[in-house]
Amino acid sequence: MAPIPTPPAEPNDSPDSYVGLDSASAERLARERGWPTVRSLPPGAIITMEYRVGRLNFEVKDGRVTRSWKG
Fold it and tell me: Which CATH class is domain 15-70?
């Protein structure tokens, strides 16, 4: 049986630090800090609930990040 792969470590970064930033700056900063996947979503978007290591999610309203979370 093949071993279960170990996912890469996530950046040591607080999602809360992106709240209030404009979405373009937040995405650029997240990538600079090592997040391989950054996803911007409108408020109330219907999304799947799977947890993806290395993904940072932004809820964006009027061009600003209002909420941010891992996965």
Answer: alpha beta
Q: Which two tokens stand for residue 3?
A: 């071993």
The pLDDT tens digits of the residues spanning 35-67 come to 999 999 999 999 988 999 999 999 999 999 999
Share the mean pLDDT of the chain: 94
State CA 56 to chain mean position distance.
1
> From residue 58, how far is each of 1, 47, 61, 66 by CA, in Å?
38, 12, 10, 7
Sort strands 55-61 and 37-41 into parallel, antiparallel or unpaired: parallel
- Break the chain into its structural domains and give their ranges: 15-70
- Per the DSSP assignment, residues forming a β-bridge with 41 are 59
How far is Cα of residue 22 from the mean position of the Cα atoms in its chain?
14
Label residues 27-40 b or e (16+ Cβ within 10 Å = b): beebeeeebeebee
